User: What shape does this take?
Amino acid sequence: MVDEKKDFCKCQSVTAIISEEGEFGYWDICCTCGKPLEDGYHYYNHYDGEDHDDLDMYD
Assistant: This one.
């Protein structure tokens, strides 16, 4: 689980990311340094029983 007090990714160029799942959402994690991206937390939307990424609202 991502530690909220941990430093965020400072890489100049992020070439790949992975996701780390949580109870209410997930973090985008840089594959180079292993740290979360500063704006990389995405909440799930649970209103209909399905997990939806918050970015779906902008499509």
